[in-house]
TrEMBL record, chain A:
The keyword Plastid does not apply. It comes from the Bacteria. Residues 5-232 form the ABC transporter domain. InterPro entries: AAA+_ATPase, ABC_transporter-like_ATP-bd, ABC_transporter-like_CS, ABC_transporter_ATP-binding, DrrA1/2-like_C, P-loop_NTPase. This is ABC-2 type transport system ATP-binding protein. Pfam families: ABC_tran (PF00005), DrrA1-3_C (PF13732). GO terms for molecular function: ATP binding; ATP hydrolysis activity. PANTHER family: ABC TRANSPORTER ATP-BINDING PROTEIN (PTHR42711), ABC TRANSPORTER ATP-BINDING PROTEIN NATA (PTHR42711:SF5). Transmembrane segments: none annotated. Keywords: ATP-binding, Nodulation, Nucleotide-binding, Transport.
From TrEMBL, chain B:
The keyword Transmembrane applies. Residues 19-413 form the ABC-2 type transporter transmembrane domain. It is a multi-pass membrane protein. Pfam families: ABC2_membrane_3. The chain crosses the membrane at residues 21-42, 183-204, 242-268, 297-319, 339-359, 366-385, 391-413. Keywords: Cell membrane, Membrane, Transmembrane, Transmembrane helix. Its main location: membrane. GO terms for molecular function: ABC-type transporter activity. This is ABC-2 type transport system permease protein.
Length: 314, 438
């Protein structure tokens, strides 16, 4: 799979402040790519560079095999985190205006708008002013505006903020549908559950540096702790504990279970899971046996706090 | 280019559809005419007559003051020379009289210099003082002349007044009133430019701030270059402004005609003046009016109009780029004050220079220098053009203006580019300087 977007060693400085320090990214074509990072990490700076709102001090951005140039704004759709529309302009006119700015003809823009308004069931809003709409309604309009010109690359900064669960779901489905149609989507968010659910690739930016990048599964493998959550019914707890602690590290665990069982976290290190299972089955009835896969949330917090420790040690 | 015209169109439509714009467009001329009519009405009202007491111990001057008592005059004089000065002073404090003139007795009337007093609670107007001094002074002069046995009538006859006839070197005759016309035309155009810059420059600034506070700026800026947006905004706003000005002019003229037809019946042909008088008056009037009109045609009308267009475009774009940059730098209008002052100053300065310096000496060094400086030249040079300005001065001034204009647009675009994405803080001058290097 080739990359739609490649960012090579991009540096951006504001005065003395380094917003991006030699950041490189590879966004595969047709993927949903999660761009993660705490507030002030440099995500917005990077997104603005991809959108050509600002220019990098050094480094380059390659879009679809070409160096980024002004004509590319027409192939990118951008939903900024700071949402906003002209409050006193009518919805329809406003959408037409913004679509024409992205290079659509008026007729084409009208056609696309009809399609999307119909799809989202908002046909009646055409002549309303933005100030008459609720925040969530305005967000929907804004989503429509950024996908009207069928962008190859869609950059969504916190796309679900401001939506109720029902509308968030509608938008999520639309994003997935766009992906099916071949769009590549960059997803910048703090909401880890949506990342977990939708993203195939992630990158973590922290303090102007990229710390992690890769397929979600690969990243998780890299962060696996090789520990298992175990539930077991046994009469001889002392004997069981003795057996396990000979080989593995054990700590108490808590998870929901219907049985009145003993709950343990067991780190097996380099041993095979079967070795643990053998020990367990000899001593009792195994009711629960799950590898503890780190959530992206865990990885995020772990990486950021470790980085903080490193920095404070320096 | 098509994107810029798209922006221009949106800005224009957004401005023109704005309720306050519509209201202002149609209400301002009405207000203006209403104020004019009101002022006219006020000035036609008679002021309250003031009662002035005269205590003349010489007994020479009182009659001359009483001669001034006419119906409808502003002051009414009372000869109260018999009453004690002290009692009169009391009546002033009790406000029975508005003022008291005390003329003491001296051996010789010429000794009165500096001894006449005017007593009142409020300081008198300059014209009143001058009038009083004239009455007393003329009387003394007359007495002196009589004492010297001179014939006052003969002296009056011997006095002469000379009206200077103005002729240009090219041989054309010229009217004295023409200088006022020149100043009037230049001043009107200069003033128009200043008003336009302040009103519509502010509008540009507000519209930039609006996009910032609406947070739509980031979407727009991801499709177009900030420079395109800025230019589109300035042009669109100015087109709306020109439309508004044209509507004002049309409505204003219409209302003025209507008002003069309604109130000014006595200026029309129905006025009750005998036909012969009217004829002679008309003849005289039309004679000089024809000369005025002929002289007006001799003014460099073409260069005035072309100059107006060029300086209007240059000056307006120069200033509104500043306004756009300020709008981009701040978050709300109250923060803009500290940056606006340095912009308003040169505008006001140039109007003052126009009305004081150019009027006295259109080709003096101050007028020439300020008609070269780009920030003041649109107004000052425009006021000089009716007086005839050598073409090389105009050439220098215009090229300086446009050179500065391009520099300022470049500079403003830089501030604009950075500023529109900066939220939540009020920048200092130092920060603005830093932005230039981003």
């Amino acid at each position: 799979m080739s990359n739609l977007l490649e960012v090579h060693n991009v540096v951006k400085q504001y005065g003395d402040y380094v917003a991006l320090n030699e950041v490189s990214l590879n966004v595969p074509k047709g993927s949903i790519y999660g761009l993660l990072g705490p507030n002030g990490a440099g995500k917005t700076s990077l997104i603005r560079i991809i959108n050509q709102i600002t220019l990098p001090d050094s480094g380059e951005v390659i879009l679809d095999g070409e160096k980024l140039q002004p004509k590319h704004v027409q192939t990118i759709g951008y939903l900024p985190e700071e949402r906003g529309l002209y409050s006193s302009m009518k919805v329809g006119e406003q959408c037409l205006y913004l679509a024409q700015m992205k290079g659509l003809s008026k007729a084409e823009a009208k056609k696309q708008l009809d399609y999307w308004f119909d799809r989202l069931g908002i046909q009646g809003w055409w002549n309303k002013k933005i100030q008459e709409l609720s925040k969530g309604m305005a967000q929907k309009i804004q989503f429509v505006v950024c996908v009207l010109h069928k962008p190859k690359l869609l950059i969504l900064d916190e796309p679900f903020s401001g939506f109720d669960p029902v509308n968030a779901n509608i938008i999520k489905d639309e994003i997935l549908a766009l992906k099916e149609q071949g769009s590549t989507i960059i997803f910048s968010t703090h909401r880890m559950e949506s990342v977990e659910e939708m993203c195939e690739h992630i990158a973590l930016i922290h303090k102007s540096n990229k710390l992690i990048e890769g397929r979600v599964a690969d990243v998780k493998r890299q962060f696996r702790s090789n520990s298992f959550e175990v539930g077991i019914l046994t009469n001889n707890v002392e004997g069981l504990m003795y057996d396990i602690t000979q080989k593995f590290t054990v700590s108490p665990a808590s998870f929901r279970s219907l049985n009145d069982d003993l709950k343990l976290n067991i780190e097996i290190g380099n041993a095979a899971p079967n070795e643990l299972l053998n020990v367990l089955t000899q001593r009792g009835q195994v009711t629960h046996f799950v590898e503890k896969i780190p959530s992206i949330n865990d990885i995020f917090i772990q990486t950021v706090t470790e980085n903080k420790k490193l920095n404070s040690n320096n | 280019m098509s994107i810029i015209s798209l922006i221009i169109k949106r800005e224009f439509v957004a401005k023109v559809r704005n309720k306050s714009f519509v209201v202002m467009t149609f209400l301002s001329p009405l207000l203006f005419v209403a104020i004019a009519v009101f002022i006219g009405y006020l000035s036609s009202m008679k002021a309250e007559t003031k009662r002035i007491a005269i205590h003349d111990e010489t007994g020479i001057f009182a009659t001359d003051f009483l001669k001034e008592n006419k119906k409808g005059a502003e002051f009414k004089y009372y000869n109260l020379s018999e009453i004690d000065v002290k009692a009169l002073k009391d009546s002033i404090t009790k406000e029975n009289f508005n003022g008291l003139i005390v003329i003491p007795k001296t051996a010789n009337v010429n000794d009165l210099e500096g001894k006449v007093e005017f007593i009142s609670n409020n300081s008198p107007s300059i014209s009143f003082i001058e009038n009083t001094q004239d009455i007393i002074g003329e009387k003394i002069t007359k007495l002196n002349l009589e004492e010297a046995k001179l014939d006052t009538l003969a002296i009056q006859k011997a006095q002469s007044k000379v009206n200077i006839h103005l002729v240009k070197a090219s041989g054309e005759e010229s009217l004295k009133g023409l200088n006022e016309i020149k100043i009037g035309i230049g001043g009107a155009f200069g003033y128009l430019i200043m008003m336009f810059i302040i009103i519509y420059g502010n509008m540009v600034m507000r519209s930039v701030i609006e996009e910032k506070t609406n947070r739509i700026i980031e979407i727009i800026i991801s499709s177009v270059k900030p420079f395109q947006l800025m230019i589109g905004k300035i042009v669109g706003t100015s087109l709306a402004g020109i439309l508004q000005f044209m509507i004002w002019a049309i409505i204003g003229l219409g209302l003025m005609f209507a008002a003069s037809a309604f109130f000014g019946v006595n200026v029309g042909p129905t006025a009750r003046i005998s036909p012969e008088m009217m004829q002679t008056a008309q003849h005289e009037f039309s004679g000089s009016a024809q000369m005025y009109i002929a002289e007006m045609w001799n003014l460099p009308i073409a260069s005035i109009l072309i100059g107006f267009v060029i300086y209007f475009i240059g000056g307006y774009f120069l200033y509104s780029s500043f306004y756009a940059a300020i709008g981009a730098a701040v978050d709300n209008q109250t923060d803009s004050q500290q940056f606006l002052l340095p912009i308003i100053m040169p505008l006001i300065l140039s109007v003052y220079i126009g009305f004081f310096t150019v009027v006295n000496d259109p080709h003096g060094s101050i007028a020439v220098i300020f008609s070269m400086i780009p920030l003041t030249s649109p107004i000052v040079m425009l006021m000089r053009i009716p007086f005839g300005v050598p073409w090389w001065q105009i050439a220098i001034s215009v090229s300086l203006l446009f050179a500065t204009f391009f520099f300022v647009v470049w500079f403003a675009a830089k501030i604009y580019r950075v500023g529109i994405l900066m939220y939540g803080k009020k920048p200092s001058w130092k920060e603005l300087y830093k932005w230039l290097k981003y």
